[in-house]
Please model this.
Amino acid sequence: MKAGVVVFPGTNRERDIAIALQAASGRRPRMVWHGETELAGLDLVVLPGGFSHGDYLRCGAMAARSPVMGAIRDFAAAGGHVLGVCNGFQILAEAGLLPGALLRNASLRFLSQDCHLRVERADTAFTRHYQPGQVFRAPMAHGDGNYFADPATLDRMEGEGLVALRYASPEGAVVPEANPNGSARSIAGILSPNGRVMGLMPHPEDLVDPLMGGTDGLPLFAGMAEALAA
Amino acid sequence: MTKREVTPALAREFGLSAEEYGRVLAIMGRTPSFTELGIFSVMWSEHCSYKSSRVWLKQLPTAAPWVIHGPGENAGVVDIGDGLAAVFKMESHNHPSFIEPYQGAATGVGGILRDVFTMGARPVANLNALRFGHPDDPRTRRVVDGVVRGVGGYGNCVGVPTVGGEVNFHPAYSGNPLVNAMTVGIAPRDRIFLSAAAGVGNPVVYVGSKTGRDGIHGATMASAEFDAATEEKRPTVQVGDPYTEKLLIEACLELMATDAIVAIQDMGAAGLTSSSVEMAGKGSVGIELDLDQVPQREAEMTAYEMMLSESQERMLMVLRPDRQDVARAIFEKWELDFAVIGRLTDTGRIVVRHRGAVEADIALDPLAEQAPLYHRPTADTSKLPLLGEVADPAGLVPALLTLIGCPDLCSRAWVWNQYDSTIGGQTVQRPGGADAAVVRIEGSRRALALTTDCTPRYCAADPEAGGMQAVAEAWRNLSAVGARPLAITDNMNFGNPEKPEIMGQFAASIRGMAAACRALDFPVVSGNVSLYNETDGRGILPTPAIGGLGVLEDAGQCVGLALRPGLDLVLVGTASGWLGQSLWLREVAGREDGPPPPVDLAAERRNGDLVRELILAGRVRACHDVSDGGLLVTVAEMALGGDVGATLLDAPAGSVPHCFWFGEDQARYVLAVADADAILIAAESAGVPAQRLGRAEGTHLTLPGGVSISLAELRAAHERFFPAWMGS
Model:
């Protein structure tokens, strides 16, 4: 798998993503600067976490208008796989590549803690190494992860199976107590209609090594490495 | 600020004493200009000159075979093996954090980050030691909320994990909270960047944010006491921009991979003044600045304002002239200002020009060498008489519930959860998981162990014992995860040094710290002094906060504090039942009294060396040092950490139960092990006292005599305070 990791000014989890991709695929990803427009030869484009452009206008709003985003739009339209994590998810939403928006956390505070995610779709390149309904642990670290879309959009997404991950209890119960940021219908990760663009708020890339307390996040990267092996 | 006539009265307003102003006149041979007076006043402020503390700081041991750079550089540098160095320092931002908690704390984090990456190190961890007023004081909640948001807001955005620290409360900090921020970075051992300028004619380059009017005279503010008019000082607090800092980190590290930089220094306190004066002074050269070239954010700024501005996220560099274009391209890529604002000369003077006029022209040597140095009078610190017998008014379980839920011992999750602790993907032990944070070095098995420690109530009761204890506890916390302690950074927070009793506290604390540093081979490699921490004439508790750094050759060998079922609990160290200055005495018996526990440095060393050896031999599954709250609190924290109960044995014959379980004797650890007998034998042969405490099992903490309390009840008490107090 040839992966590209997009770096905007203010991106800060690109190294974490690169480590996870390398652990799963054995290949170092290519770092793609925000001003680049050439993505040829890549099987996967990842938009990592951070505070692109300081998140000063609205999270992801300025990054969504970067030169590289035109190329990513074309890449996605041609059936390419795109993963947006945290700020990357916010950028994909701002760019209109995924529906909805990420609002301030319901508590109005930045939250850095572990959460548990229930896999709603296990038939995508991103989630194929998990079982449907499986629960895995992931760190999260964001101030604006409260997923919002209007009810009609949410109903359509549910109907089309575009919800990939939900916040859940360790036992898999989707309950308000397990929803850390107030996200609509406990949504933590969503898919594009073709299942090839995924955005999620938590950071599975920070749980891929037993030394850090677990490898719950590794299947995500291993799944992509297998599905997108070139 | 418009120029004013320079008079003795203005000098006093700028914080210079009559004697100091006399010295300025002697050096200049004339009345200084307004800008020159500003330069003298900030360079000779307590904050920049350490004029009251220097004579004492010299007593601290600063050398060891693994120390690469001790105090005097932007941060301390120690060898951590594999050709790598750790660069670290702790620094206070107390005064700004009271005036404007969010920006005060945020810029505190930003400032200490710059001290570390200035030296060529990528920052890999932040810690912070925070002390606030009593929770019942209506101001405290606002300060806590702002400081925590500020620490998180800055650290989270720059992408450096915040992995540890302390939060404490005491009424003495009500008008004067302490925000001590520590950054640790990693650099190749042979690629450390220093600040001494060299090469007459070399360009002096300004990079980073533009200069505004924020923070003018911040260093002077940090050298004065607070009073009712302090709120009016809000304009002297700087405003942070962590996004620009992130760009600055990446741009500087990219430039540092080339050979362009001759010298580099961040613009911290006293901004352009101190960075240019120190760089030129250390290099024994002169410097000329053309302020018309300084990137400015506001119109019509004067030379005085530009020289004294403490606008954040700025650096000053001396570059090789033939590499100027390489450097400019890197900063343009990162969309940061890059301006040649001067050059080095052979005059030994700093000459500042603005709009065609010479605004300042000062000889550098006397500015540094004739800076005031005070041997301020010290008063002996009185010792409190020993406590007599103190009866147990509560019983063990109610006392445990009180302690584990009190603001100084309750769960800090509400605080930690606002700090990104996992970014970087190298955090082996997160906040609360172990006595020290453990951060692996990317791409290696090696890891750093990090902690901050100080027990101010001990320091207030006996500054020498308290200083010793702070260093010993940092050493102990590193040993408790299995790390080899290497060095410390110290952040000395005290009251008004012009008062003999405060200077007495300072001197005694240094004495205690120095003794501990020597006994434990744990030198001081960097530090910061914050004096005048007083409001309306009342000082804070003496708070020599210690940041400790240790190394683990294999991150996989470290242990946390969480119990697991079936393990035996063993106490390493002696239990004399020392209640003086204990939290039990304060929280349960309602007294702040008696001398603090004595520190036996030989026992500290022996016990800690044994514990580390056992951990590295794989014979310990969990370890927690015994500190605030004593033995029972230690065991309860281990139980909560692992969600496993414990059944405890009787206190040894002859001991008084509440003294045994809540005394705060030093040099102690609780180990969770698979085979207690073998551990006791190892301890005996090492000459270390140890005893069996009980066993990890079940869902309750069961005390001798069968009284028990469920972990659920314990957890509820432990986790109640912060969310309830902060209303979330």
The mean pLDDT of chain B is 95.
